Amino acid sequence: MRLFLKLKRDGYISSQLDLKPEFKPCALKRDKYNQVTLPNGGQGLIVTRFGSQAMLEDKHGHTVRTKVRRKLEHLVCGDEVTWEKTPANDIVVTEILPRRNTLTRTYFRGTPRTLAANIDQLLVICAPQPEPDWSVIDNLLVAAERMKAEAIIVYNKTDLHSPKSDQIILDDFQKAGYKVLKTSTQNPESIVVLQEKLNGKTSIF
Predict the structure, then answer these.
(1) CB distance 15 to 6 below 8 Å
(2) DSSP code of 130?
């Protein structure tokens, strides 16, 4: 099963991370980049990181492209940062503020890599089809526990035939204290419930 992690702030998907070693930013639909008037400096949130650049969201919700200094190469989605404007009107990240938590994965040769930071909750998405890989889901739940973030299991596509074994496992997760949401585009109320869980939170899924 191939899972994707997406950072979601206040109900808005802001970045995508594949659980494979490669980093793949998703498309953003925000203000036209760098076409907003910003002060000479301030604090902001990193919503996408790609190469030597990143997308930064300021306190007013404006999103601009920013350059990442070499000493801050470990910058990730979810980082709260300080930034300043250069004489050429470029936005440059100057400092990463202390992180509340991090989502880290160990790659080849035991090298750890931080994928995201300052996460309130981790949503694990699965569905009847393709068949869930419950061992991968277990690992994601462990990751949520380690970074002290709330874990929510979202069982999507409930309009499809669901094996009885899936329901037994979901019941076990609920008995263990995890929230389980069952969603389907055929059931708009279930989507509203999911949206309510996302509002006001920084979520990764």
Answers:
(1) yes
(2) S
**Range picked from 14-23, 41-50, 53-62, 172-181 for highest mean pLDDT:** 172-181
In the 8-state DSSP scheme, what is residue 129? S
Tokens linked to 160: 């499809």
3-state secondary structure of 156: coil
Measured at the CA of 77, the angle between CA 74 and CA 83, to 5 degrees, comes to 75
Q: Name residues whose C-beta falls within 8 Å of residue 7's C-beta, 6 or more positions apart in sequence.
A: 13, 14, 15, 16, 17, 47, 77, 78, 116, 119, 202, 203, 204
Residue 66 and residue 36 in contact, taking contact as beta carbons nearer than 8 Å: no
Q: Are the C-beta atoms of residues 202 and 191 closer than 8 Å to each other?
A: no
Residue 151 and residue 145: Cα distance in Å, rounded? 8
Q: Where are the beta strands (DSSP E) in 91-199?
A: 91-96, 102-106, 112-117, 121-126, 150-155, 179-182
Q: How far apart are CA 131 and CA 59, in angstroms?
A: 41
Spatial contact of 83 and 66, defined as CB atoms under 8 Å apart: yes
- One-letter amino acid of 8: K
pLDDT tens string 40-86? 778 999 988 887 889 999 888 888 888 888 888 789 999 999 998 88
